[in-house]
Structure of Sulfotransferase:
Amino acid sequence: METPIFIFSLPRSGSTLLQRVLMSNPQICSVSEPWILLPQIYILRKEGTLSDYSSLTAHKGNMDFINNLPNKEEDYFDSLRQFMLDLYSKQCQNNEQYFLDKTPRYYLIIDEIVKLFPKAKFIFLFRNPIHVFASIINTWGKGRFRKQYANYNDIVDGTKMLSQGYSKYMGISISIKYEDFILNPLEELDKVSNYLNIDFNKESLKLFNSQNTKGSLGDFLGPSSYSEISSNGLGKWKTTFNSKIRKKFAISLIKKIRSEDLELQGYNQKEIICEINALNSKQNSKFFMDLFDYIVGYIIRKFNLNLFFVKEFSWIKKRPLS
Protein backbone atom coordinates (compact mmCIF):
# COMPACT_ATOMS: atom_id res chain seq x y z
CA MET A 1 0.00 0.00 0.00
CA GLU A 2 1.35 3.40 -1.00
CA THR A 3 -1.09 5.79 0.62
CA PRO A 4 -4.56 5.93 2.20
CA ILE A 5 -7.69 7.52 0.79
CA PHE A 6 -10.11 9.32 3.11
CA ILE A 7 -13.75 10.10 2.39
CA PHE A 8 -15.02 13.03 4.45
CA SER A 9 -18.81 13.21 4.67
CA LEU A 10 -21.84 13.30 6.92
CA PRO A 11 -23.53 10.02 7.84
CA ARG A 12 -26.21 8.98 5.31
CA SER A 13 -24.50 10.89 2.49
CA GLY A 14 -23.92 7.99 0.12
CA SER A 15 -20.41 7.25 1.35
CA THR A 16 -21.01 3.49 1.42
CA LEU A 17 -22.11 3.56 -2.21
CA LEU A 18 -19.04 5.58 -3.21
CA GLN A 19 -16.82 3.28 -1.14
CA ARG A 20 -18.13 0.17 -2.89
CA VAL A 21 -17.83 1.72 -6.34
CA LEU A 22 -14.20 2.61 -5.64
CA MET A 23 -13.54 -0.88 -4.24
CA SER A 24 -14.49 -2.29 -7.63
CA ASN A 25 -10.98 -1.31 -8.72
CA PRO A 26 -8.50 -4.02 -7.64
CA GLN A 27 -6.06 -1.32 -6.50
CA ILE A 28 -8.36 -0.15 -3.68
CA CYS A 29 -8.97 -2.05 -0.45
CA SER A 30 -11.43 -0.99 2.23
CA VAL A 31 -13.15 -2.26 5.37
CA SER A 32 -16.58 -1.03 6.47
CA GLU A 33 -16.02 2.02 8.76
CA PRO A 34 -12.77 1.73 10.77
CA TRP A 35 -13.28 4.67 13.20
CA ILE A 36 -9.74 3.82 14.33
CA LEU A 37 -8.23 7.30 14.10
CA LEU A 38 -10.80 9.01 16.34
CA PRO A 39 -9.53 7.65 19.69
CA GLN A 40 -5.91 8.17 18.64
CA ILE A 41 -6.55 11.84 17.84
CA TYR A 42 -8.81 12.46 20.83
CA ILE A 43 -5.89 11.59 23.08
CA LEU A 44 -4.81 15.17 22.34
CA ARG A 45 -8.20 16.68 23.26
CA LYS A 46 -9.37 17.54 26.74
CA GLU A 47 -13.03 17.32 25.75
CA GLY A 48 -14.97 14.82 23.70
CA THR A 49 -14.64 11.51 25.57
CA LEU A 50 -15.86 10.00 28.84
CA SER A 51 -14.68 6.78 30.45
CA ASP A 52 -14.63 4.90 33.71
CA TYR A 53 -10.85 5.20 33.84
CA SER A 54 -11.14 9.05 33.86
CA SER A 55 -10.63 10.61 30.46
CA LEU A 56 -9.52 13.88 32.03
CA THR A 57 -6.74 12.21 34.01
CA ALA A 58 -5.79 10.14 30.97
CA HIS A 59 -5.56 13.33 28.90
CA LYS A 60 -3.19 14.87 31.47
CA GLY A 61 -1.05 11.73 31.52
CA ASN A 62 -1.00 11.48 27.73
CA MET A 63 -0.03 15.12 27.32
CA ASP A 64 2.69 14.82 29.99
CA PHE A 65 4.09 11.85 28.10
CA ILE A 66 3.85 13.56 24.70
CA ASN A 67 5.34 16.84 25.95
CA ASN A 68 8.36 14.95 27.28
CA LEU A 69 9.14 13.47 23.87
CA PRO A 70 12.10 15.17 22.12
CA ASN A 71 9.85 16.79 19.50
CA LYS A 72 6.64 16.63 21.50
CA GLU A 73 3.50 16.36 19.37
CA GLU A 74 5.50 15.90 16.17
CA ASP A 75 6.98 12.69 17.55
CA TYR A 76 3.52 11.45 18.47
CA PHE A 77 2.23 12.13 14.96
CA ASP A 78 5.28 10.48 13.37
CA SER A 79 4.78 7.30 15.41
CA LEU A 80 1.01 7.34 14.91
CA ARG A 81 1.52 7.69 11.15
CA GLN A 82 3.74 4.61 11.03
CA PHE A 83 1.35 2.70 13.25
CA MET A 84 -1.65 3.50 11.04
CA LEU A 85 0.21 2.84 7.79
CA ASP A 86 1.21 -0.55 9.14
CA LEU A 87 -2.42 -1.39 10.02
CA TYR A 88 -3.76 -0.12 6.69
CA SER A 89 -1.11 -2.13 4.84
CA LYS A 90 -2.08 -5.31 6.69
CA GLN A 91 -5.65 -4.85 5.46
CA CYS A 92 -4.33 -4.77 1.87
CA GLN A 93 -3.73 -8.50 1.64
CA ASN A 94 -3.55 -8.41 -2.16
CA ASN A 95 -0.96 -5.63 -2.19
CA GLU A 96 -3.47 -2.95 -3.23
CA GLN A 97 -2.15 0.53 -3.92
CA TYR A 98 -4.68 2.30 -1.69
CA PHE A 99 -6.52 1.65 1.55
CA LEU A 100 -9.80 3.57 1.70
CA ASP A 101 -10.83 4.73 5.19
CA LYS A 102 -14.48 5.76 5.11
CA THR A 103 -15.61 6.95 8.56
CA PRO A 104 -18.27 9.70 8.53
CA ARG A 105 -17.35 11.19 11.92
CA TYR A 106 -13.86 11.91 10.60
CA TYR A 107 -15.24 15.37 9.82
CA LEU A 108 -14.31 16.03 13.48
CA ILE A 109 -10.58 15.48 12.85
CA ILE A 110 -9.96 16.66 9.27
CA ASP A 111 -7.00 18.88 10.23
CA GLU A 112 -5.28 16.12 12.18
CA ILE A 113 -5.76 13.58 9.40
CA VAL A 114 -4.25 15.92 6.82
CA LYS A 115 -1.35 16.59 9.19
CA LEU A 116 -0.85 12.85 9.69
CA PHE A 117 -1.05 11.98 6.00
CA PRO A 118 -0.19 15.05 3.90
CA LYS A 119 0.34 12.85 0.82
CA ALA A 120 -2.95 10.98 1.20
CA LYS A 121 -5.96 11.40 -1.08
CA PHE A 122 -8.98 13.27 0.29
CA ILE A 123 -12.49 13.05 -1.15
CA PHE A 124 -15.12 15.39 0.27
CA LEU A 125 -18.59 13.95 -0.35
CA PHE A 126 -21.41 16.46 0.03
CA ARG A 127 -25.16 15.89 0.18
CA ASN A 128 -28.01 18.32 0.82
CA PRO A 129 -28.25 18.34 4.67
CA ILE A 130 -32.05 18.17 4.60
CA HIS A 131 -31.87 15.08 2.39
CA VAL A 132 -29.34 13.63 4.85
CA PHE A 133 -31.68 14.28 7.75
CA ALA A 134 -34.62 12.75 5.88
CA SER A 135 -32.52 9.63 5.32
CA ILE A 136 -31.66 9.51 9.05
CA ILE A 137 -35.36 9.75 9.95
CA ASN A 138 -36.35 7.04 7.47
CA THR A 139 -33.59 4.58 8.36
CA TRP A 140 -32.42 4.93 11.95
CA GLY A 141 -35.64 6.63 13.12
CA LYS A 142 -37.91 4.28 11.13
CA GLY A 143 -39.88 7.25 9.89
CA ARG A 144 -40.08 9.07 13.22
CA PHE A 145 -38.26 12.03 14.80
CA ARG A 146 -37.09 9.95 17.73
CA LYS A 147 -33.49 9.72 16.52
CA GLN A 148 -33.02 13.42 15.83
CA TYR A 149 -31.21 13.97 19.13
CA ALA A 150 -28.36 11.68 18.04
CA ASN A 151 -27.66 13.34 14.69
CA TYR A 152 -28.52 17.00 15.20
CA ASN A 153 -24.83 17.86 15.57
CA ASP A 154 -23.98 15.89 12.44
CA ILE A 155 -26.24 18.12 10.38
CA VAL A 156 -25.43 21.48 11.96
CA ASP A 157 -21.80 21.15 13.09
CA GLY A 158 -20.79 18.50 10.59
CA THR A 159 -21.83 20.57 7.59
CA LYS A 160 -19.82 23.50 8.91
CA MET A 161 -16.71 21.39 9.58
CA LEU A 162 -16.84 19.78 6.15
CA SER A 163 -17.00 23.21 4.48
CA GLN A 164 -14.17 24.52 6.62
CA GLY A 165 -12.07 21.49 5.80
CA TYR A 166 -12.73 21.64 2.08
CA SER A 167 -12.07 25.38 2.00
CA LYS A 168 -8.71 24.82 3.70
CA TYR A 169 -7.60 21.79 1.68
CA MET A 170 -9.27 22.42 -1.66
CA GLY A 171 -5.92 22.36 -3.45
CA ILE A 172 -5.08 18.78 -2.41
CA SER A 173 -8.54 17.21 -2.47
CA ILE A 174 -11.59 16.76 -4.67
CA SER A 175 -15.28 17.19 -3.91
CA ILE A 176 -18.26 15.21 -5.11
CA LYS A 177 -21.93 16.06 -4.69
CA TYR A 178 -24.01 12.99 -3.99
CA GLU A 179 -26.75 14.28 -6.28
CA ASP A 180 -24.28 14.74 -9.15
CA PHE A 181 -22.84 11.29 -8.55
CA ILE A 182 -26.30 9.73 -8.78
CA LEU A 183 -27.29 11.69 -11.90
CA ASN A 184 -23.93 11.49 -13.71
CA PRO A 185 -21.95 8.65 -12.13
CA LEU A 186 -19.50 8.17 -15.00
CA GLU A 187 -18.62 11.85 -15.11
CA GLU A 188 -18.01 12.00 -11.35
CA LEU A 189 -16.13 8.71 -11.41
CA ASP A 190 -13.88 10.12 -14.11
CA LYS A 191 -13.02 12.97 -11.76
CA VAL A 192 -12.02 10.44 -9.09
CA SER A 193 -10.09 8.43 -11.66
CA ASN A 194 -7.97 11.43 -12.65
CA TYR A 195 -7.38 12.34 -9.01
CA LEU A 196 -6.26 8.85 -7.97
CA ASN A 197 -4.57 8.09 -11.28
CA ILE A 198 -6.28 4.73 -11.62
CA ASP A 199 -8.86 3.56 -14.14
CA PHE A 200 -12.58 3.12 -13.60
CA ASN A 201 -15.15 2.21 -16.24
CA LYS A 202 -18.82 1.37 -16.66
CA GLU A 203 -18.26 -2.01 -15.03
CA SER A 204 -17.33 -0.22 -11.80
CA LEU A 205 -20.90 1.04 -11.63
CA LYS A 206 -22.21 -2.52 -11.86
CA LEU A 207 -19.78 -4.27 -9.53
CA PHE A 208 -20.38 -2.12 -6.44
CA ASN A 209 -23.16 -4.39 -5.21
CA SER A 210 -20.81 -7.37 -4.97
CA GLN A 211 -18.10 -5.66 -2.89
CA ASN A 212 -17.60 -7.04 0.60
CA THR A 213 -16.74 -4.35 3.15
CA LYS A 214 -16.27 -7.02 5.83
CA GLY A 215 -17.73 -5.10 8.76
CA SER A 216 -20.89 -4.32 10.69
CA LEU A 217 -21.04 -0.56 10.03
CA GLY A 218 -22.12 1.40 6.97
CA ASP A 219 -25.27 1.35 4.87
CA PHE A 220 -26.08 -2.25 3.99
CA LEU A 221 -29.73 -1.63 3.17
CA GLY A 222 -29.10 0.90 0.39
CA PRO A 223 -26.36 -0.37 -1.94
CA SER A 224 -27.36 -3.97 -1.31
CA SER A 225 -30.95 -3.40 -2.39
CA TYR A 226 -30.31 -2.29 -5.98
CA SER A 227 -28.09 -3.48 -8.80
CA GLU A 228 -27.47 -0.15 -10.51
CA ILE A 229 -27.19 3.50 -9.56
CA SER A 230 -30.55 5.18 -10.06
CA SER A 231 -31.94 8.68 -9.52
CA ASN A 232 -35.31 7.29 -8.39
CA GLY A 233 -34.59 7.97 -4.73
CA LEU A 234 -33.46 11.59 -5.06
CA GLY A 235 -36.96 12.93 -4.36
CA LYS A 236 -37.75 10.55 -1.54
CA TRP A 237 -36.90 13.19 1.07
CA LYS A 238 -40.04 15.11 0.07
CA THR A 239 -42.29 12.42 1.52
CA THR A 240 -40.51 12.69 4.87
CA PHE A 241 -41.32 16.35 5.50
CA ASN A 242 -45.00 16.05 4.71
CA SER A 243 -46.61 17.89 7.62
CA LYS A 244 -46.49 21.41 9.00
CA ILE A 245 -44.45 20.46 12.05
CA ARG A 246 -41.93 18.51 9.99
CA LYS A 247 -41.57 21.33 7.47
CA LYS A 248 -41.12 23.84 10.27
CA PHE A 249 -38.43 21.71 11.87
CA ALA A 250 -36.63 21.21 8.54
CA ILE A 251 -36.60 24.96 7.88
CA SER A 252 -35.33 25.74 11.39
CA LEU A 253 -32.59 23.17 10.90
CA ILE A 254 -31.38 24.52 7.56
CA LYS A 255 -31.36 28.07 8.97
CA LYS A 256 -28.88 26.97 11.62
CA ILE A 257 -26.35 26.22 8.88
CA ARG A 258 -24.47 29.20 7.48
CA SER A 259 -25.43 30.01 3.91
CA GLU A 260 -21.71 30.31 3.07
CA ASP A 261 -21.07 26.75 4.17
CA LEU A 262 -23.96 25.48 2.06
CA GLU A 263 -22.83 27.57 -0.90
CA LEU A 264 -19.34 26.07 -0.79
CA GLN A 265 -20.88 22.61 -1.07
CA GLY A 266 -23.06 23.65 -3.99
CA TYR A 267 -26.37 24.32 -2.24
CA ASN A 268 -28.42 27.48 -1.80
CA GLN A 269 -30.12 28.03 1.54
CA LYS A 270 -32.99 30.10 0.14
CA GLU A 271 -33.69 27.54 -2.58
CA ILE A 272 -33.77 24.72 -0.04
CA ILE A 273 -36.23 26.66 2.14
CA CYS A 274 -38.42 27.35 -0.90
CA GLU A 275 -38.39 23.65 -1.78
CA ILE A 276 -39.48 22.75 1.75
CA ASN A 277 -42.23 25.38 1.78
CA ALA A 278 -43.57 24.02 -1.51
CA LEU A 279 -44.08 20.51 -0.12
CA ASN A 280 -47.54 19.14 0.56
CA SER A 281 -48.20 19.64 4.27
CA LYS A 282 -51.64 18.07 4.52
CA GLN A 283 -50.39 14.84 6.08
CA ASN A 284 -50.94 15.94 9.68
CA SER A 285 -52.41 12.70 11.02
CA LYS A 286 -49.24 12.13 13.04
CA PHE A 287 -49.03 15.68 14.35
CA PHE A 288 -49.07 14.75 18.03
CA MET A 289 -46.63 11.88 17.50
CA ASP A 290 -44.24 14.21 15.67
CA LEU A 291 -44.63 16.84 18.37
CA PHE A 292 -43.99 14.27 21.08
CA ASP A 293 -40.93 12.90 19.25
CA TYR A 294 -39.56 16.39 18.70
CA ILE A 295 -39.97 17.45 22.35
CA VAL A 296 -38.51 14.19 23.68
CA GLY A 297 -35.61 14.39 21.22
CA TYR A 298 -34.91 18.00 22.15
CA ILE A 299 -34.86 17.21 25.88
CA ILE A 300 -32.61 14.18 25.35
CA ARG A 301 -30.19 16.24 23.25
CA LYS A 302 -30.29 19.27 25.59
CA PHE A 303 -29.46 17.28 28.73
CA ASN A 304 -27.59 14.31 27.20
CA LEU A 305 -30.20 11.97 28.65
CA ASN A 306 -29.24 9.25 26.19
CA LEU A 307 -26.38 8.50 28.57
CA PHE A 308 -28.96 7.43 31.15
CA PHE A 309 -31.70 5.81 29.09
CA VAL A 310 -29.98 4.08 26.17
CA LYS A 311 -29.33 0.41 26.95
CA GLU A 312 -25.77 0.46 25.60
CA PHE A 313 -24.85 3.12 28.21
CA SER A 314 -26.39 1.32 31.18
CA TRP A 315 -22.92 0.60 32.55
CA ILE A 316 -22.43 4.25 33.48
CA LYS A 317 -25.09 3.96 36.20
CA LYS A 318 -22.68 1.79 38.16
CA ARG A 319 -19.50 3.76 37.54
CA PRO A 320 -18.52 7.43 37.87
CA LEU A 321 -17.42 9.10 34.65
CA SER A 322 -14.80 11.80 34.24
